[in-house]
Automatic annotation (TrEMBL):
Gene: ALKBH7
Localization, UniProt: Mitochondrion matrix
Alpha-ketoglutarate-dependent dioxygenase AlkB-like domain residues: 97-223
UniProt-listed SUPFAM superfamilies: Clavaminate synthase-like
A Pfam family recorded for this sequence: 2OG-FeII_Oxy_2
Protein's recorded name: Alpha-ketoglutarate-dependent dioxygenase alkB homolog 7, mitochondrial
Molecular functions (GO terms): metal ion binding; tRNA demethylase activity
Names of required cofactors: Fe(2+)
GO cellular component: mitochondrial matrix
Family: Belongs to the alkB family.
GO biological process, one term: fatty acid metabolic process
Amino acid sequence: MAASGGRPPLRPFRRLSGLLLGRGAGARREAGGSEPNWVRGSGQAVLARLRASAVVQPDFLSLEEEETLSRELEPQLRRRRYQFDHWDAAIHGFRETEKSRWSEPSRAILQRVRAAAFDPDQPQLPLVHVLDLDQSGYIKPHVDSIKFCGSTIAGLSLLSTSVMRLVDSHDPQQWLELLLERRSLYILRGPARYDFSHQILRDQESFFAGRKVPRGRRISVICRSLPEGDRGPDLPPPLPPPPC
Ligand SMILES: O=C(O)CCC(=O)C(=O)O
């Protein structure tokens, strides 16, 4: 992450997917079939392959819970400026922070996220990543760095619905799109996390199953598992799952 205003940089979570930069998925044939209304894919094979590893739970948050989180985050985010020219170019029009201290109601919400997304004994990053995307902001295709993130990523979407696209890093014809409705939870694990890049589409490209999904400002609240195995010399020893 770029340092600004003298703050320490955040973990460089993202590794751009060079294969996919500058390439859209082209004219895409979609398959949905028996999939839930918030998952589309290039074909039945990819849908089956990622069925257990790219999961969306709509309405995970109540309106009140969304309000609780966004009210708590707003003052902290407002102190930062949106960045439109980030040095690693993985993301455009955003501000972000990592947060460890939460109010009691927010802790309870995050505990629900952790229970839904992680195995009970899966070590997790104690800091929660908060990403605020401007209405014009977007995230380019990337794979989260294996140095800073383990096999599971769980994200809440606040304020705006968006479309997340996953593309197979070895075969760009294989893709999946997730409709991330406001107040939903998504979970990427295993193959969806390691073998596919993920991105959040900009407003002009924000369509799902042929229908426009208008993008507004979106805040995501993301919990990640700790990297497995050798986590590098500059990371602290593993922590048990945080109480949140
Ligand atoms: O905002 C999201 O839900 C995804 C964030 C993301 O891809 C990242 O921080 O690497």
